[in-house]
């Protein structure tokens, strides 16, 4: 244990490749956590008697991860009927899960990379394949973050449209047979921030490529060749 602790090199965290890894760690957590912890709801008031001025029953529909809205059908009893369903049309789970999976994998990879930087920095500096692998994985994650963020942004737009009052009335039998009034709309600020975090991750992971490329032998060999040409 003492030998491992003696090899700890925290100075690498002051370098761009190490400091940006910390940013990747933070923003990866922010991206997937804002999706998985999301909760919102919408509320409708229904008149059992259309001639009555006051609403007589209240329905509440929940919106939670993984947003398999069309598979979640909450049953309510109202107006002497026990099988009213309240749901949102559309299944947005595949893009949401893809986005979360990319965030979790990125988070785990950054942990491994930081451990490599701090405890096995000599291996990183002396083995040409390690910096190349780090650079290649960053390219892959930058592409994954871009694809996942675009897909999730598109699904979030669909989810917001599906939870509009007119669409809820259109696809729920209770509003087809009885007058419905809008009371509470879902709030998607947290999910909008998740999309922003996703594209911030695209920027951060892409920005780090230059600093990681400088650690590879391709860059070092090119600089050495330029120095030789200059001396000649």
From TrEMBL:
The keyword Transmembrane applies. PROSITE patterns: MARVEL. Pfam families: MARVEL (PF01284). It is found in: Membrane. Keywords: Glycoprotein, Membrane, Transmembrane, Transmembrane helix. It comes from the Eukaryota. The keyword Cell wall biogenesis/degradation does not apply. GO terms for cellular component: synaptic vesicle membrane. It is a multi-pass membrane protein. Belongs to the synaptophysin/synaptobrevin family. This is MARVEL domain-containing protein. The lineage of its organism: Eukaryota, Metazoa, Ecdysozoa, Arthropoda, Crustacea.
